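It is worth pausing here to work through a concrete case rather than discussing structure prediction in the abstract. The textbook approach is simple: state the sequence, then state the predicted structure, then interpret. We follow exactly that order.
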Amino acid sequence: MTRSLYSDLAGESAAHRHLSDEAFLTGLLTVESALSVAAARAGALSDAEAATAVETIRNYHPDLEEISRQSAEGANPTIPVVKALKAIDPTGIHPGATSQDIIDTSLMLCLRDATGEIIAELGELADLLAELTRTHRDTPMMAHTLGQQAVPTTVGCITAGWLQAVLRSQAALQELRFEVSYGGAAGTMTATHPHGFAIQDALAAELGLHNSGLVWHSDRIPVTTIAAALATAAGAVRKIAGDVIFLSASEISELREAQPGGSSAMPHKANPAAAIACDGYARRVPGLLATLFDALDCRLQRGTGSWHAEWQTIRELAAATASAVGRCRRSIDGIVVDTDRMEQHLTGTDVGHAPEIADRVLELYEGK
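Step two, the predicted structure:
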């Protein structure tokens, strides 16, 4: 399910399929199934009980719209899902968990898979920028500071700066840990004591998630750490888009997208549409990030509203970031560098260390 045609179809990112409501709901069931298996491995359930639970979950086909309506009654979607599963057969279902464990772990699955797609798209963008940098290492152009012409630089130095930020944001995403959640009703794992930590570890292994060995129900830093890294990537590509928009302006015309957009009223225009869309998607991200940082105020042992505000926000932030990255890649792919126009604007020939700066970033790219 797409959140909106413009968010998903126009964004053209493979990450979106991991961030839909269907993916989130599927994640809840994936976690419940893995939890039953993990509980058996830890000795809290028998193998037969776990097998019954897995079969019950496999045969359950939830109605997304109905689950959404029922979720309002208990303020989260795990409650109606678990109720429906137990109505079929309660054996081995939801051992020792609380709703937050299932929701937080499902979110981590969604974000892990979506982030993997974003990392790959940033890699494709980096490849395009590296090629631009090599090709135009020595191509002179005017630099701009505070919106005005400054001194000469090179195209390669400019694109190397873009590449540097992309590589850094990609590295930050690659270093993220997507953490399993298992703490039980009040974060004490009482219902499965003394097997709690063993279940936590087995659940992480079953799902391929990181296990810190901690309970993080009211510690939302695992969420904001991921959100901040995604927002940084969105900011990195928005910077590129902003430069492309400026350098594509009619009065400058030093860059031109390979497939510029048109105008419904002015047929002479060739708008840097992909860069503009990138900017639009990325501008949504800081506000979403602020909501997640506000949710760090998670009081007592379960957030009242703060936790609930995270579920859609973090997925929307990831989706907007993915769309921004995808549109930036489209903008750079085949971009036309008008060297004649650049030469007309030059006021000097000394580009300083610009070529060597480009070389250093290319070395960073080649060594990643």
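Step three, interpretation. Strands lie at 140-145, 148-154, 255-256, 336-337. The two ends are 35 Å apart (CA to CA).
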